[in-house]
Amino acid sequence: MKRRWAAVLVSISACIGAIMAPLVPPPASAAAPALPERILSLSASATQMLYAIGAGKQVVGVDKYSTWPPNAPRTKLTGYESSAEAYLYLHPDLVVFAFNEGSLIRQLADLHIRTLLLPPAATMAQVDGQLAELGQVTGHAARARAVERSLAAHVAAAVRSARGRGKGETYYIELYPGYYTATSKTFMGAELSLFGLEDIADPAGKGTMWPQVSAGYVLKENPDYVFLADTVCCHQTASSFAKRPGFSLLRAVKLHHVVPVDDSFAQEWGPHSIEAFVGLIARVLAK
Questions:
Q1: CA 231 – CA 247 distance, rounded (Å)
Q2: pLDDT, tens only, 108-146
Q3: 8-state DSSP, 157
Q4: Which range marks the domain in which residue 22 is found?
Q5: Is 144 inside a domain boundary?
Q6: How many domains does the chain have?
Protein backbone atom coordinates (compact mmCIF):
# COMPACT_ATOMS: atom_id res chain seq x y z
CA MET A 1 0.00 0.00 0.00
CA LYS A 2 2.92 2.36 0.72
CA ARG A 3 4.23 1.76 -2.79
CA ARG A 4 0.81 2.41 -4.28
CA TRP A 5 0.37 5.71 -2.44
CA ALA A 6 3.89 6.81 -3.32
CA ALA A 7 3.17 6.18 -7.01
CA VAL A 8 -0.17 7.92 -6.75
CA LEU A 9 1.27 11.03 -5.11
CA VAL A 10 4.07 11.30 -7.66
CA SER A 11 1.98 10.56 -10.72
CA ILE A 12 -1.30 12.29 -10.06
CA SER A 13 -0.13 15.88 -10.56
CA ALA A 14 1.10 15.06 -14.03
CA CYS A 15 -2.00 13.11 -14.95
CA ILE A 16 -4.81 15.13 -13.49
CA GLY A 17 -4.95 17.92 -16.06
CA ALA A 18 -6.11 15.60 -18.82
CA ILE A 19 -9.42 13.82 -18.83
CA MET A 20 -8.12 10.91 -20.84
CA ALA A 21 -5.51 9.91 -23.40
CA PRO A 22 -6.27 8.45 -26.82
CA LEU A 23 -5.75 4.88 -27.83
CA VAL A 24 -2.10 4.06 -28.55
CA PRO A 25 -1.07 3.96 -31.30
CA PRO A 26 -3.78 5.95 -33.21
CA PRO A 27 -2.82 6.18 -36.90
CA ALA A 28 -4.78 9.09 -38.35
CA SER A 29 -5.83 7.21 -41.45
CA ALA A 30 -6.55 3.85 -39.80
CA ALA A 31 -10.01 2.35 -39.73
CA ALA A 32 -11.78 2.05 -36.40
CA PRO A 33 -10.20 -0.82 -34.44
CA ALA A 34 -12.17 -3.95 -33.67
CA LEU A 35 -13.92 -4.10 -30.33
CA PRO A 36 -11.62 -5.56 -27.67
CA GLU A 37 -12.35 -9.10 -26.53
CA ARG A 38 -9.62 -9.45 -23.88
CA ILE A 39 -9.36 -6.36 -21.68
CA LEU A 40 -6.81 -6.02 -18.89
CA SER A 41 -7.79 -3.26 -16.46
CA LEU A 42 -4.93 -1.88 -14.38
CA SER A 43 -7.16 0.77 -12.81
CA ALA A 44 -9.63 -0.02 -10.03
CA SER A 45 -11.84 2.85 -11.21
CA ALA A 46 -11.83 1.64 -14.81
CA THR A 47 -12.69 -1.85 -13.57
CA GLN A 48 -15.79 -0.45 -11.87
CA MET A 49 -16.73 1.42 -15.03
CA LEU A 50 -16.21 -1.56 -17.34
CA TYR A 51 -18.53 -3.76 -15.33
CA ALA A 52 -21.06 -0.98 -14.83
CA ILE A 53 -21.42 -0.43 -18.59
CA GLY A 54 -21.76 -4.13 -19.36
CA ALA A 55 -18.23 -4.85 -20.60
CA GLY A 56 -17.40 -7.32 -17.84
CA LYS A 57 -17.48 -10.33 -20.18
CA GLN A 58 -14.65 -8.74 -22.16
CA VAL A 59 -12.41 -8.39 -19.08
CA VAL A 60 -9.80 -11.14 -18.65
CA GLY A 61 -7.84 -9.58 -15.78
CA VAL A 62 -7.80 -6.68 -13.32
CA ASP A 63 -5.12 -5.26 -11.06
CA LYS A 64 -4.67 -6.34 -7.44
CA TYR A 65 -6.34 -3.14 -6.19
CA SER A 66 -9.62 -3.72 -8.04
CA THR A 67 -12.04 -4.91 -5.38
CA TRP A 68 -15.32 -4.13 -7.14
CA PRO A 69 -17.05 -6.10 -8.39
CA PRO A 70 -15.93 -8.96 -6.13
CA ASN A 71 -16.08 -11.49 -8.99
CA ALA A 72 -13.69 -9.57 -11.26
CA PRO A 73 -10.67 -11.70 -12.27
CA ARG A 74 -8.13 -10.15 -9.93
CA THR A 75 -4.41 -10.68 -10.56
CA LYS A 76 -1.20 -9.71 -8.76
CA LEU A 77 -0.55 -6.99 -11.32
CA THR A 78 -0.32 -3.33 -10.26
CA GLY A 79 0.17 -1.23 -13.37
CA TYR A 80 3.64 -0.32 -12.13
CA GLU A 81 5.47 -3.33 -13.59
CA SER A 82 8.86 -2.77 -15.17
CA SER A 83 8.06 -4.77 -18.30
CA ALA A 84 4.90 -5.18 -20.38
CA GLU A 85 5.84 -8.84 -20.77
CA ALA A 86 4.22 -9.35 -17.36
CA TYR A 87 0.84 -8.90 -19.09
CA LEU A 88 1.29 -11.20 -22.06
CA TYR A 89 0.08 -14.39 -20.37
CA LEU A 90 -3.44 -12.90 -20.44
CA HIS A 91 -3.20 -12.20 -24.19
CA PRO A 92 -4.87 -8.77 -23.83
CA ASP A 93 -5.98 -6.78 -26.85
CA LEU A 94 -6.62 -3.66 -24.71
CA VAL A 95 -4.88 -2.58 -21.50
CA VAL A 96 -6.39 0.23 -19.43
CA PHE A 97 -4.17 2.32 -17.16
CA ALA A 98 -4.78 5.04 -14.56
CA PHE A 99 -1.14 6.19 -14.57
CA ASN A 100 1.50 6.34 -17.28
CA GLU A 101 4.30 4.64 -15.38
CA GLY A 102 7.68 4.29 -17.04
CA SER A 103 7.57 2.97 -20.59
CA LEU A 104 4.76 0.43 -20.25
CA ILE A 105 2.41 2.12 -22.71
CA ARG A 106 5.17 2.45 -25.31
CA GLN A 107 6.22 -1.16 -24.77
CA LEU A 108 2.66 -2.33 -25.38
CA ALA A 109 2.45 -0.18 -28.50
CA ASP A 110 5.59 -1.86 -29.79
CA LEU A 111 3.82 -5.20 -29.21
CA HIS A 112 0.79 -3.91 -31.15
CA ILE A 113 -1.41 -4.05 -28.05
CA ARG A 114 -3.78 -1.12 -27.65
CA THR A 115 -3.82 0.91 -24.44
CA LEU A 116 -6.13 3.47 -22.90
CA LEU A 117 -4.98 5.93 -20.24
CA LEU A 118 -7.76 7.21 -17.99
CA PRO A 119 -5.99 9.37 -15.40
CA PRO A 120 -7.44 10.37 -12.03
CA ALA A 121 -10.64 12.35 -12.41
CA ALA A 122 -11.05 15.62 -10.53
CA THR A 123 -14.69 16.32 -11.44
CA MET A 124 -17.88 14.44 -12.22
CA ALA A 125 -17.61 15.75 -15.78
CA GLN A 126 -14.31 13.91 -16.15
CA VAL A 127 -15.89 10.72 -14.80
CA ASP A 128 -18.64 11.09 -17.40
CA GLY A 129 -16.01 11.56 -20.09
CA GLN A 130 -14.23 8.38 -19.08
CA LEU A 131 -17.47 6.41 -19.01
CA ALA A 132 -18.22 7.66 -22.53
CA GLU A 133 -14.73 6.76 -23.74
CA LEU A 134 -14.95 3.24 -22.36
CA GLY A 135 -18.44 2.86 -23.79
CA GLN A 136 -17.24 3.83 -27.24
CA VAL A 137 -14.11 1.67 -27.12
CA THR A 138 -15.88 -1.46 -25.84
CA GLY A 139 -19.10 -1.18 -27.84
CA HIS A 140 -21.32 -0.23 -24.90
CA ALA A 141 -21.94 3.46 -25.59
CA ALA A 142 -25.67 3.35 -24.83
CA ARG A 143 -25.13 1.56 -21.53
CA ALA A 144 -22.42 4.07 -20.61
CA ARG A 145 -24.85 6.94 -21.13
CA ALA A 146 -27.38 5.16 -18.94
CA VAL A 147 -24.80 4.72 -16.18
CA GLU A 148 -23.92 8.41 -16.45
CA ARG A 149 -27.57 9.40 -15.98
CA SER A 150 -28.07 6.96 -13.10
CA LEU A 151 -24.93 8.16 -11.35
CA ALA A 152 -25.95 11.81 -11.69
CA ALA A 153 -29.38 11.02 -10.25
CA HIS A 154 -27.86 9.11 -7.32
CA VAL A 155 -25.47 11.95 -6.48
CA ALA A 156 -28.22 14.58 -6.74
CA ALA A 157 -30.48 12.52 -4.46
CA ALA A 158 -27.71 12.18 -1.86
CA VAL A 159 -27.08 15.93 -1.88
CA ARG A 160 -30.80 16.65 -1.53
CA SER A 161 -31.10 14.25 1.37
CA ALA A 162 -28.50 16.25 3.33
CA ARG A 163 -30.92 19.23 3.25
CA GLY A 164 -28.08 21.73 3.20
CA ARG A 165 -26.44 20.41 6.34
CA GLY A 166 -22.71 20.85 6.30
CA LYS A 167 -22.73 23.90 4.06
CA GLY A 168 -19.90 26.20 5.11
CA GLU A 169 -18.51 23.71 7.64
CA THR A 170 -14.95 22.45 7.38
CA TYR A 171 -13.31 19.06 7.07
CA TYR A 172 -9.94 17.34 7.10
CA ILE A 173 -9.12 14.23 5.05
CA GLU A 174 -6.35 11.95 6.28
CA LEU A 175 -4.83 9.76 3.58
CA TYR A 176 -1.84 8.42 5.46
CA PRO A 177 -0.27 8.85 8.90
CA GLY A 178 2.00 11.84 8.99
CA TYR A 179 -0.88 14.13 8.05
CA TYR A 180 -0.88 13.52 4.32
CA THR A 181 -4.13 15.01 3.12
CA ALA A 182 -6.07 16.08 0.03
CA THR A 183 -7.43 19.40 -1.12
CA SER A 184 -10.82 20.13 -2.65
CA LYS A 185 -9.16 19.90 -6.09
CA THR A 186 -8.98 16.12 -5.78
CA PHE A 187 -11.95 13.93 -6.65
CA MET A 188 -12.65 13.08 -3.01
CA GLY A 189 -12.61 16.79 -2.26
CA ALA A 190 -14.92 17.48 -5.19
CA GLU A 191 -17.44 15.00 -3.79
CA LEU A 192 -17.38 16.72 -0.39
CA SER A 193 -17.71 20.10 -2.09
CA LEU A 194 -21.04 19.00 -3.55
CA PHE A 195 -22.42 19.31 -0.01
CA GLY A 196 -20.93 22.76 0.57
CA LEU A 197 -18.18 21.48 2.87
CA GLU A 198 -14.85 23.35 2.88
CA ASP A 199 -11.41 21.73 2.98
CA ILE A 200 -8.95 22.99 5.60
CA ALA A 201 -6.07 21.76 3.40
CA ASP A 202 -6.77 24.19 0.56
CA PRO A 203 -4.59 27.03 1.94
CA ALA A 204 -1.78 24.52 2.52
CA GLY A 205 -1.90 23.16 -1.02
CA LYS A 206 0.57 25.61 -2.57
CA GLY A 207 0.53 23.93 -5.96
CA THR A 208 -0.12 20.38 -4.86
CA MET A 209 -3.43 18.64 -4.40
CA TRP A 210 -1.91 16.23 -1.89
CA PRO A 211 -0.13 18.34 0.74
CA GLN A 212 1.36 17.20 4.00
CA VAL A 213 0.27 19.29 6.97
CA SER A 214 0.97 18.84 10.68
CA ALA A 215 -0.85 18.03 13.88
CA GLY A 216 -0.51 21.68 14.82
CA TYR A 217 -2.14 22.74 11.56
CA VAL A 218 -5.12 20.45 12.16
CA LEU A 219 -5.46 21.73 15.72
CA LYS A 220 -5.33 25.34 14.55
CA GLU A 221 -7.90 24.83 11.79
CA ASN A 222 -10.13 22.80 14.15
CA PRO A 223 -12.30 21.10 11.48
CA ASP A 224 -15.97 20.25 11.95
CA TYR A 225 -15.51 16.85 10.28
CA VAL A 226 -12.63 14.43 9.83
CA PHE A 227 -12.59 11.67 7.19
CA LEU A 228 -10.01 8.98 7.88
CA ALA A 229 -9.04 7.33 4.59
CA ASP A 230 -6.20 5.37 6.17
CA THR A 231 -8.32 2.78 7.96
CA VAL A 232 -7.29 -0.18 5.79
CA CYS A 233 -3.63 0.57 5.19
CA CYS A 234 -2.85 1.86 8.64
CA HIS A 235 -5.69 0.75 10.93
CA GLN A 236 -6.65 4.27 11.98
CA THR A 237 -9.92 4.64 13.89
CA ALA A 238 -11.96 7.45 15.40
CA SER A 239 -10.70 6.33 18.79
CA SER A 240 -7.01 6.31 17.83
CA PHE A 241 -7.41 9.70 16.16
CA ALA A 242 -8.97 11.21 19.30
CA LYS A 243 -6.09 9.89 21.43
CA ARG A 244 -3.47 11.93 19.58
CA PRO A 245 -2.02 14.73 21.75
CA GLY A 246 -4.50 17.58 21.99
CA PHE A 247 -6.98 16.06 19.53
CA SER A 248 -9.64 15.42 22.16
CA LEU A 249 -10.27 19.18 22.01
CA LEU A 250 -11.03 19.17 18.29
CA ARG A 251 -14.56 20.12 17.32
CA ALA A 252 -14.89 17.02 15.12
CA VAL A 253 -13.90 14.76 18.00
CA LYS A 254 -16.24 16.43 20.48
CA LEU A 255 -19.16 16.16 18.04
CA HIS A 256 -18.31 12.55 17.10
CA HIS A 257 -17.71 13.67 13.53
CA VAL A 258 -14.58 11.58 12.93
CA VAL A 259 -15.61 9.28 10.09
CA PRO A 260 -13.59 6.19 9.13
CA VAL A 261 -13.90 5.47 5.40
CA ASP A 262 -12.47 2.85 3.09
CA ASP A 263 -9.08 3.94 1.73
CA SER A 264 -10.34 3.30 -1.80
CA PHE A 265 -12.69 6.30 -1.60
CA ALA A 266 -9.63 8.57 -1.81
CA GLN A 267 -8.07 6.65 -4.69
CA GLU A 268 -10.95 5.59 -6.94
CA TRP A 269 -13.53 7.42 -9.00
CA GLY A 270 -15.64 4.55 -10.31
CA PRO A 271 -19.45 4.49 -10.03
CA HIS A 272 -19.52 2.10 -7.07
CA SER A 273 -17.06 4.20 -5.04
CA ILE A 274 -18.85 7.44 -5.89
CA GLU A 275 -22.27 6.15 -4.90
CA ALA A 276 -20.93 4.67 -1.66
CA PHE A 277 -19.03 7.79 -0.62
CA VAL A 278 -21.68 10.42 -1.41
CA GLY A 279 -24.22 8.21 0.36
CA LEU A 280 -21.96 8.06 3.40
CA ILE A 281 -21.47 11.84 3.40
CA ALA A 282 -25.22 12.38 3.27
CA ARG A 283 -25.79 10.01 6.19
CA VAL A 284 -23.03 11.62 8.28
CA LEU A 285 -24.42 15.11 7.70
CA ALA A 286 -27.96 13.99 8.50
CA LYS A 287 -27.02 12.85 12.02
A1: 18
A2: 999 999 999 999 999 999 999 999 999 999 999 999 999
A3: H
A4: 16-26+34-156
A5: yes
A6: 2
